Write the structure tokens for this entry.
Amino acid sequence: MTTLQERLAEQIPPLAEQVKTLVRNNAQKVVSEVTVEQLYGGMRGIKCLVCDTSLVEADTGLVIRGRPILELTECLPEEVFYLLLTAELPDKAALDALRSDFRKRATVPAHVWDVLGAMPRDSHPMTMLSTAVLVMEGESEFIKAYHRGIKKDLYWQPMLEDAMTIVARLPEIAAGIYRLRYDKGPRIAPDPNLDMGANYVHMLGAPDPDGDFSKLMRLYFVLHSDHESGNVSAMTTATVSSALSNLFYALSAGLNGLAGPLHGLANQECLSWILETLATFGGVPTHEQLEKYAWDTLSSGRVVPGYGHAVLRITDPRFDAFLAFGKKHCSDDPVFQTVARVFETVPNVLRQVKKIKDPWPNVDAISGSVLYHYGIHEFDYYTVLFGVSRAMGVCAQGVIARAMGYPIIRPKSVTTDWVQKTVEKFAMR
Ligand code: CMX
């Protein structure tokens, strides 16, 4: 039986050598250009990052280590974490070893609960999550190893320790935040026999007589686990980590980015928009009512949340996965029915707005509705679950970056004056 640590120790040296040779032999070859529009447009489309854990193409959506996300919907989140790191799904022995390792690390230190308990009662749950990760920073194995003078090519080992500790603890932290923030009673101890999704549902204290809520949470944690490295939370985590700040610092920063309404918080805004339509029309709106509502939203200067994407130009396959789950498990729920009807209506509206490049739904257009069905009605909490899942991807990316010896991230900025003069030089040619 080979553990995750042992498998990575086999894989990393030849991979690091491959990258070194690739760079050495091709150092000056051009792989991307930058236009003025991209410079001022959030760097959209510039190929300037390397991420091996996953790839998101406009016409395919998320592919994790060569496997389209829709092929992974039956996997456990723990298996996907192993896949993100090694490009392989674990066999039973390796999975058992990983789960047993997670169990050993899962105990959340008491000071985390003390700090969360001392925060203002109305703190946003994302503030609580980011704080919880940050206050565990003193336990970083990476920082201890760094101070002991560990060799650079071994940095990935204590990084992996930190990644595993974080991933092991986040479900309990997230469930604890829910119970504390919404007065649901004392925390519920983890059940070491359960997988990540089922254990989270158990610690939430939610009824799950037929196991469907656990199924949903496994799917949720798998679908949100990674989305390459150019999005705000992943790029922030990678940038902070590149300064050799440990993963607790880096992930906490990334979570702060995830808390933005154009990124992870969109799921909260999306459900709020859906509930607004249900309240306005006194039930599941008709297609005509939704069409008018979407136009009203646009003309009031708001975005239709959950629609559009910086990269995708198709319906997000993660949306499709939740739609299939919802059709099977909550097709009679008016909130889910409204989400499905919005999908039948809104892309036609957005297609008529010239500036919108992608009229199709992203994962946030639906993820809240299925959580709502299982009784999580506090939608400002939803991004916490996104964060628990996304931590797997960005932490895996952090481990790989250290394994490959990537340097501190430091692109060059220019002034508008420089851009002006540069384009004038082009005009004179
Ligand atoms: N509703 C209204 N306007 C939209 C829109 C939508 N759903 N999607 C894009 N637009 C607008 C943009 O605001 C932008 O307008 P301005 O030029 O006036 O600023 C214009 O269309 C062009 O945008 P784009 O190139 O199509 O999209 P961007 O790459 O700039 O932005 C995103 C992508 C996701 C921020 C945008 O589509 C959006 O705001 N969607 C709604 C919020 C959302 O669902 N976010 C979650 C994304 C998933 C994630 O990263 O977590």
